[in-house]
Amino acid sequence: MLKTMLRRAGKFAAIAAAGLVMSAQAAEPIKIGSFLSVTGPASFLGDPELKTLEMYVEKINESGGVLGRPLELIHYDDVGNASSARNFASRLIRSDRVDIIVGGSTTGATMAAVPLVEQAKIPFISLAGAVVITTPVKEWVFKTPQSDRMAAERILSDMKERGITKIGLISGTDGFGASGRTQTLEVAKELGVEILADVTYSGSDTDMTAQLTNIRNTQGVEGVLNFGFGQGPAIVTRNYAQLGIKLPFYQSHGVASDGFLDLAGASAEGLRLPASPLLVPDSLPEDDPQKEVVQTYKAEYEARWNAKVSTFGAYAYDGLMLAVKAIEAAGSTEPEAVRKALENIQGHVGVTGEFNMSPEDHNGLKADSFRILEVQNGAWKLIN
Amino acid sequence: MFSEFLQYLFTGITIGATYALIALGFTLIYNASHVINFAQGEFLMIGGMATVSLMAMGVPMLLAIILAVVLAGVLGILLQRFAIAPAKQADVVTLIIITIGASIFIRGLAQLVWGKEYHVMPNFSSDEPIRIFGAVLNSQSLWVLGIGAILVVGLVLFFTRTLIGKAILATSMNKEAARLVGIRTQLVLMLAFMVSALLGSVAGVVVAPITFTSYDIGIMLGLKGFVAAAIGGLGSGVGAVVGGLLLGVVEAMAAGYISSDYKDAVAFSMILVVLFFMPRGLFGAKVVERV
Amino acid sequence: MVNRFMQSRLRDLVFLAIILFALPAFLSNPFHYDLATQMAIIAATVVGLNLLVGFAGQISLGHAGFFGLGAYFSGIMTGSYGWSSIPALLVGAVLVGIIAWIVGRPILRLKGHYLSMATLAVGFIIAIIINNETWLTGGPDGMPVPSLDIFGWELSPFGSYSLFGMELDGNQAWYLFAALVLLVAVWFAQNLIDSPIGRALRSVHGSEVAARVVGVNTASYKSLVFVISAIYASLMGGLYAHFQGFITPAVAAFDFSIVLITMVVLGGMGSTMGVILGAVVLKLLPQVLADFQELETVMFGLILMLTMIFMPKGLLPTIQMAVSKRMKKKAGGQA
Fold this sequence. Notes:
The structure holds three protein chains of three kinds.
Chain A lengths: L1 H20 L8 E7 L6 H20 L8 E7 L4 H14 L4 E4 L3 H14 L3 E3 L14 E3 L4 H14 L4 E7 L2 H17 L2 E8 L7 H8 L6 E5 L4 H11 L6 E3 L6 H7 L7 E4 L15 H15 L5 H20 L4 H9 L4 E2 L4 E2 L15 E6 L2 E4 L2
Parallel strand pairs in A: 1-2, 1-3, 3-4, 4-5, 6-7, 6-8, 8-9
Antiparallel strand pairs in A: 10-13, 11-12, 13-14
Chain B lengths: L1 H32 L6 H17 L4 H24 L7 H23 L15 E3 L2 E3 L1 H23 L1 H11 L1 H6 L4 H27 L5 H16 L4 H22 L4 H15 L14
Antiparallel strand pairs in B: 1-2
Helix pairs in contact in B: 1-5, 1-6, 1-8, 1-9, 1-10, 2-3, 2-4, 2-8, 2-9, 3-8, 5-6, 5-8, 6-8, 9-10, 10-11
Chain C lengths: L1 H6 L1 H14 L7 H26 L8 H16 L5 H23 L4 H21 L1 H4 L5 E2 L3 E3 L2 E3 L4 E4 L2 E4 H24 L2 H11 L1 H7 L3 H27 L1 E2 L6 H14 L4 H18 L6 H15 L4 H20 L1
Antiparallel strand pairs in C: 1-6, 2-3, 4-5
Helix pairs in contact in C: 2-8, 3-8, 3-11, 3-12, 3-13, 4-5, 4-6, 4-11, 5-11, 9-10, 9-11, 12-13
């Protein structure tokens, strides 16, 4: 009885919330479902993603919605736990009956929800980056971030251009870091780069001097790559500077944000990483197709939330815009039509890159959508 | 070779000092009331976060620190008064769950008030690392060790020289007897929590420049502090300090020499080894079980 | 005769069965069944944990480790090595039982907080190993798990089945299965509690010294209940893995251990039905609070604190006491 009472209370609360969201229009809303890691160890990802989704759903509704119907965002917080993510995906699909899902901040959360999405035959645009999400291609699953493999390719290529062929690798033991490490090891073999030292740290660690000392004392290391996200890489960067290691230092796209510069401070000077042009919108040449989209997103986000913009929020932005574009192209929310429309999107200029989807490529980005940025005088500088 | 060892040692002692301070907080509350306060880590978090947010509002650093520490102290009193005291005859496990609930609650509030981002705090003194025999030491580490030592000495003096300190000890030894000699045990308990909170928050402030601070750093640090307290022997101040330092050093050595993947596993295995040979921790009191 | 029935241990089991089979009348969509199935599996897990914590009085803060081991053993054996589910579950249970026995002997000599510390350490070590051995476990990003197959017959949340002429979808079929599993788990636990073993355990909880004085081999009984509760967790972990279809190292993590212990304490330590209620409430709470978004963490912590402060014996025992008080008043009034 307790259970039913609680469930009714939950239903009432949900209905009340939904009622507030829906505008006075009589047209039936298009339900966009989302499960994100808004709190917990991956809040670095989910928080800006949610803010972006909320903001742009509002904006789109203000200018008339999609196909004359308002958008309704139904979102849940999975606290970085894949099991919760799966449960909320189940709730979105079976209870809330959403038309499309834009969510899944982490790879674990995304992969846990994939069987449900495939069975329910609802389009799912993931905001997580591991290569396994879209390779092999799954009919109903798409993603907006570049894969970690592409990041590794971009970084290692840049290293080779600078003459670095033997490196030390330090990565986080979380999903992003571990997956990045695996991809780096594979890509390194292909490109002929040797990984002489391979150390890790966990997400809650507060000092990585020991691991870095290990790398420093390995003979022949010419450069160092740190694959991780959150505050870990900032601590690594500071320790790196403190130890006085002068070798070229690379970070992954996991820290492509101004927030990282705040944390790492002066010790970030000179490091390079692959990122979308979101951090250097004004450095883009005038004829760069991404310039306008990027500048607009950055300005709007920062004005609305009074917080620095982040590439993770951009994943959500691109995801939402792709969803809207597909629904408009399909002329309805019928799942198969939307899915086909998603697959056929070509030349969509997003913040993360230019998307060219196809039935074999549900990501639509190539490694060169990453730009190489370097930190100079405490600010991001576009190198490549 | 030697500089490598020295580097690991420095790292280990710095983080170990943090663990030691948190462990002292656990020990204090355990001594006074036999409660394991799983919210101890949150006092650390409050120290760091409150300082950072006050400084962002323009408050000068020293004042911000003092205010943050006072805030934590108040929170400690509130915790005891409203969460622990009402649950008078509760089971040990129930009390643990209450403190866990409290830590979740405090973390939730911190999240609402201060947001989820990580924040940086400037070093107290210079940003230049100190070089010793080829190893580097963050100047902030010296602050951690220094302030830690002062706090430990302060605590010892507090418990042996002041009346209030002795009252806390008396209450922990025998609550009824303490009441009989006129000690206001309820007040004493609140005081114990307050001192423990002050301890935790000072540790949080002093360590924040090294570790960054955010609403959830209390979780893992609090846990490691509990581990350190158990290794050293619950209820022993010396044990808490030794346990903390030992844990920190073992972690750093494991990360450097063995495998960074498994350094936490090594640390936890160490606990099992210690407890296997010394079931009450290194300095734990031999308790006579009354039947 | 009705009175004797009411007093017997059969009463609880029958009431539980009635609730479980009547529940579908209130569930309206596959998500509800999904949630209910998970509640049943986790409830069975905490019934096992309750034997250790509630009856024998030993605190374990690492129980999720055994759950995780069972989940991953099932996942790896059925996924990468093509084993059938039932053998994987059973062999997993045996292996976890052996691990629990080896680990338990030295650990259970410890008392109080030192014991909880040691169990915490064991849980963490298991979780770290699962997280790091990516070649075997898929690492922190997790691994998919094939559906449960009972000697060739596949039980999947995505299938459709028919029973006694009724059409059931996969979620409903799984719910029935989980409900049966829960009933068996409870029956076994109750038998254990009412047996000489159960009495020995309660004597250990009451006073270990006294029990030893009377000749009870406390060490081996504590070991036994530790192993039994670990086997419960392992079996349920395996079922959970098959049902969810995907597992990550989070199923062995400290956070989950805390959730399990909280379910036991919240529902009522030592009360088999109580811990089931605890499991239901704690599984339901995040769903209900989900609509509160930002306030979710704060409210969760607050509810936890207040419940434990005002109902320290747990939900069910407190409710039972309140109900029996009122019944006594009524009886007293009549007398």
